Amino acid sequence: MRNTDILIIGGGPAGLAAAVGAYEAGARDILILDREERLGGILKQCIHNGFGLHTFKEELTGPEYAQRFIEKVLAYQIPYQTETMVLDVSADKVVTCVSRKNGLEQIQAKAVILCMGCRERPRGSLGTPGERCPGIFTAGTAQKFTNLEGLMPGKEVVILGSGDIGLIMARRMTFLGAKVHACVELMPYSSGLKRNIVQCLDDFGIPLLLSHTVVDIHGREHLEGVTVAEVGPDLKPIPGTEKYFPCDTLLLSVGLIPENELSEMAGVKIAPSTSGAEVDEQLQTSVPGIFSAGNVLHVHDLVDFVSEEAMKAGANAYRYVQGQLPQGGRKVPVQMGFGVGGIVPQFVSENAEDKVSFMFRPRNVYRNAKVIVEMNREQVLSKKTMILAPGEMVNLSIPVEKLKGLDKADSILVRIEVPEA
User: Fold this and answer.
1) Per-10-residue mean pLDDT for the chain, 421 residues long?
2) Domain carrying residue 133
3) 262 and 360 fall within a common domain
4) 250 and 128 both lie in a single domain
5) How far apart are CA 158 and CA 170, in angstroms?
6) N or C: which end of the chain has fewer CB within 10 A?
7) Radius of gyration of the chain (CA)
8) Which of 327, 351, 384 is the endpoint of a domain?
9) Of the candidates 23, 81, 13, which has an alpha carbon nearest to the alpha carbon of residue 293?
10) Within 10 A of 347 (CB to CB), how many other CB atoms are there?
């Protein structure tokens, strides 16, 4: 059995940043494991720009952004193993993995950082009626075909869902000569960033059909078309609103799911609201010494925030190895009030040392609203904002001095307050 201080599972943006964060905090015994041939994760196929505005103060493509962190990993001489599949993680931080080079092996770590990322929700989880014919792809699969393999999925396209990957693929398919008939969204709002709606749909005249969904898929040997209908407040199709779109390609951009199978093997508690691990303000899970960061923890809107979060996890993992990270004590639960969804962290330690950062997604579109944080029924933060939308995450940072009495608090409540009509 091999030994290492910090073992990082995943070599995408989160894993790379976690390694850099751990090294810059002082760690020297680090190992990254990744199942793909090359480091970089999903960013390798994201050839559009818009990355790095927060982290590097300039616009980069996905591969350029990943390369910045890869170069740091190489400069710091941080070891990594690609083409290595992790099979199991135990609660005592023994990681079992397999690769062509080393075969089956076990690695004992002092701290583990989970950075496995997320996967796309497939058609099977939607319950959409119709034929099971070729021509239906997740948006990320289509992105890999076009950007990495030089393959064209089709020429006549409808996109179901308005997640960021779907919006970006609407523009990409248009660039490649396809006709994108519409982007169809079940909810009355888009789940993507506003800038992507403008740059990827509006600029190319691609309609965004809100409160609509695909109710039938036509074709046997290959996709021939889809029927789209409007839905009511109950999200059920409204009879008589059906419209047929002839197409040979249906792209699905209907949500992302954190890859937490390994987390569950280690006994890590999973939060229903995020489908990721429950963590405290230090990004430590319910299993001491196991940390989580990036899209495996909760699906982010910007990769810059993934990197920032993962660097924090890396630094805290090293502090844990050194015995410098406070352990034990009460964990004060964080409650989601009106309009708040998928908040991270789920707990704050009574011995929190520094500022406490919260991230969440609004449940709807709210204008001229306030984000309020309360502890012991007393307000500790109020932040006014012009607009909140599910496609863009809310970041709150509270100095620990404002959380006096944390050791006696029952809970922390985060809620949205909207002006009365």
Assistant:
1) 96 98 98 97 95 94 98 98 98 97 96 97 83 93 96 97 95 97 96 93 97 95 96 96 97 94 97 97 97 97 96 98 90 96 95 90 95 92 94 92 85 93 59
2) 122-254
3) no
4) yes
5) 9
6) C
7) 22
8) 327
9) 13
10) 19
